[in-house]
Write a structure and sequence with these properties.
This protein is mainly beta. It contains no helices and nine strands. It has a four-stranded antiparallel beta sheet with strand order 5-6-7-8, with no helix packed on it. A three-stranded antiparallel beta sheet has the order 2-1-9, with no helix packed on it. A hairpin with a 2-residue loop joins strand 6 and strand 7. The chain is globular and about 40 Å long. The mean pLDDT is about 95. It holds the Pfam family NTP_transf_9.
């Protein structure tokens, strides 16, 4: 699978985990140069607190377009620290 936005591949992995229709990418599959921390957070009753990142490519910013659960609840341990995308980030087979 690959995740891309604004013409750049921001993540690529053959070891994503699909949860609720979202592909979660392992932390080592992320091109960190495109990510910057966001102040946005959310909470899921079975996964825990999510931390968000903005995606920055060629000076264009996609605010809070990626998220992860740094410390999941027990039911979601398999995706702890994995990153998922939304807000126009294309996730498709590579």
């Amino acid at each position: 699978m690959k995740a891309s936005w604004n013409g750049a591949v921001i993540a690529r992995s053959d070891k994503t985990i699909v949860v609720e229709g979202n592909h979660y990418f392992p932390p080592d599959s992320i091109n960190s140069e495109y990510f910057t921390p966001s102040d946005f957070t959310s909470h899921c009753p079975w996964k825990g607190h999510a931390q968000y990142y903005s995606v920055v490519v060629d000076d264009k910013i996609n605010q809070a377009a990626a998220w992860c659960y740094p410390r999941t609840l027990d039911a979601a341990k398999e995706i702890e620290n994995y990153i998922a995308f939304w807000r126009g980030v294309d996730v498709e087979e590579s």
